[in-house]
């Protein structure tokens, strides 16, 4: 990663159905990292979008009685609207039906052809229309007379057709060397082990074109073939940077990508195929692929076919977007699958947001407005307990950048919420309502330190719950340029004399 530049991407979503919680989860994770990096004064480019080619799209369009592009226009808008509903801060939204993307894919194909990594032959094997993926014999099982992928559970069919192939096998050793040299290319580490074991078992050349359908990007110089949807789709990460214009501002600043945020089910494409394509084209691979787990309903992955989808839009309408963002980021371990429910969502809102952070802000702001005319002045006579909370907070914040750089959101959130618990306890122990009667100077220090803690917590939670945290920072009169992470380097956030505004209730307790 170029210093101070940060390029983060979501998967590009397949618009063959309505958005579900898995889409929301991937997008919010990426958004949290993007917002954190911006708050840490990085130059950020955050990309999301839709993957609009392939047999699955063609069949869905036919079923809907629409031309494929008209079908994609309609559904892509749904996903674009979702970015607003999720309060994403993406800088671009890429569609694989755009001219800029066609240009990038054609250039990459031509590079792979020129390097001798693409050749024409015949494909025979198992293919999943649902996954747009090829599977080996040992990855297929039979149930009730039908064949299924052991990897995804999707039905597969036997395919025989002329196909262009990519010499994936030629890059096996290069990939293994790359993984060894770049230990954190794949996170979490458990995913890295899966990938390495798969590559060590032997890579076969990859079919990268189809002739049995027409909806996709035609191979240059051979219009009978459509480019394999994954070679097409993965190139979106370059298309958004105006590739093949490698001397352009976007490409020079942001490639290679800092992090591709994806679900674990598409790890193979991102951690094996993608770097191999790039090696062959003499393009640097991304710095990291982060493969998060699935969002589960009970013990099963959410999917349209199983009818167990929790609709993120309904949850946002009923509970709020900050509430959903916080819940997904805190309750689901980002290296594992996570089971979610409305009951645990409500418990999380009540315990962390309403009773902890929300209550902390409300009690401090209310006391200052009611007893100090909304104004607090810090003095130099810090008590031992004042010094202790400052020291303890510093200890809790010293690893936060490292947590975020390694996609360890769970420990990040735990540390921030611990600061909130610490501050609530500090107020309870110091009892400013009693100090008002006999030690106004000490009361001012306690309240000032409490406001400084609230400012730190709010800036740290800002990437996760931007709406609520910005309300707090607005009430502290902290301007937008000062809402950054400089305090981690010792800078103070609020002045010694501070005037606050009234703060409305941030989170309603669910009963």
Global outline: elongated
Calculate the mean pLDDT score and round it: 93
Helix percent reads 40-55%
Spatially, the strands of the biggest sheet line up as 3-2-1-14-15-9
CATH topology of the largest domain: Rossmann fold
Largest sheet: 6 strands, parallel
CATH-derived architecture of the largest domain: 3-Layer(aba) Sandwich
The stretches of 5 or more residues where confidence is low (pLDDT under 50) are none
- The secondary-structure class comes to alpha/beta
Measured by DSSP, the beta-strand proportion falls in 15-25%
How many domains in all? 2
Q: How far is it from the N-terminal to the C-terminal residue, by CA?
A: 47 Å
What is the fourth-level CATH superfamily of the largest domain? Answer: HUPs
Strand segment tally? 20
CATH class placement of the largest domain: Alpha Beta
* Continuous helix count: 19
Radius of gyration, whole Å: 26 Å
């Amino acid at each position: 990663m170029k210093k101070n530049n940060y390029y983060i991407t979501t998967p590009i979503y397949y618009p063959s159905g309505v958005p579900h919680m898995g889409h929301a989860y991937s997008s919010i994770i990426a958004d949290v990292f993007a917002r954190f990096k911006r708050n840490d004064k990085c130059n950020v480019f955050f990309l999301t979008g839709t993957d609009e080619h392939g047999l699955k799209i063609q069949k869905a369009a036919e079923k809907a009685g629409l031309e494929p592009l008209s079908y994609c226009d309609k559904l892509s808008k749904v996903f674009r609207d979702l970015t607003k509903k999720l309060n994403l801060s993406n800088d671009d939204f890429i569609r694989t039906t755009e001219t800029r993307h066609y240009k990038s894919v054609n250039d990459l194909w031509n590079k792979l052809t020129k390097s001798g990594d693409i050749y024409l032959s015949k494909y025979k094997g198992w293919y999943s229309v649902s996954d747009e993926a090829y599977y080996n014999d040992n990855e297929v099982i039979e149930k009730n007379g039908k064949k299924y992928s052991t990897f995804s559970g999707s039905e597969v069919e036997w395919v025989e057709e002329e196909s262009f192939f990519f010499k994936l096998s030629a890059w096996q050793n290069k990939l293994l060397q790359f993984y060894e040299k770049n230990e954190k290319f794949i996170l979490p580490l458990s995913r890295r082990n899966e990938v390495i074991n798969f590559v060590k078992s032997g890579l076969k050349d990859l079919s990268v074109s189809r002739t049995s359908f027409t909806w996709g990007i035609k191979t240059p110089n051979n219009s009978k073939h459509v480019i394999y949807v994954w070679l097409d789709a993965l190139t979106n990460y370059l298309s958004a940077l105006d590739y093949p214009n490698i001397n352009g501002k976007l490409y020079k600043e942001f490639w290679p990508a800092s992090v591709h945020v994806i679900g674990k089910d598409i790890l193979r494409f991102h951690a094996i195929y993608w770097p191999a394509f790039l090696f062959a084209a003499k393009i640097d691979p991304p710095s990291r692929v982060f493969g998060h787990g699935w969002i589960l309903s009970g013990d099963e992955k959410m999917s349209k076919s199983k009818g167990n989808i929790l609709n993120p839009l309904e949850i946002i309408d009923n509970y709020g977007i900050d509430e959903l963002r916080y819940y997904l980021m805190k309750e689901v371990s980002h290296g594992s699958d996570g089971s979610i429910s409305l009951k645990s969502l409500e418990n999380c809102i009540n315990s962390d947001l309403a009773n902890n952070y929300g209550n902390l802000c409300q009690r401090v702001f209310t006391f200052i407005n009611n007893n100090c005319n909304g104004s607090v002045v810090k003095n130099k006579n810090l008590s031992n307990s004042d010094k202790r909370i400052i020291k303890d907070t510093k200890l809790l914040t010293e690893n936060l950048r490292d947590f975020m750089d390694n996609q360890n959101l769970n420990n990040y959130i735990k540390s921030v919420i611990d600061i909130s618990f610490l501050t609530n306890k500090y107020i309870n122990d110091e009892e400013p309502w009693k100090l008002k009667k006999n030690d106004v100077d000490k009361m001012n220090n306690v309240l000032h330190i409490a406001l400084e803690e609230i400012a730190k917590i709010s800036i740290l939670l800002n990437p996760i719950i931007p709406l609520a945290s910005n309300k707090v920072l607005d009430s502290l009169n902290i301007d937008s340029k000062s809402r950054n992470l400089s305090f981690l380097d010792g800078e103070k956030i609020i002045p010694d004399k501070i005037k606050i505004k009234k703060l409305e209730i941030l989170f309603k307790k669910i009963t």
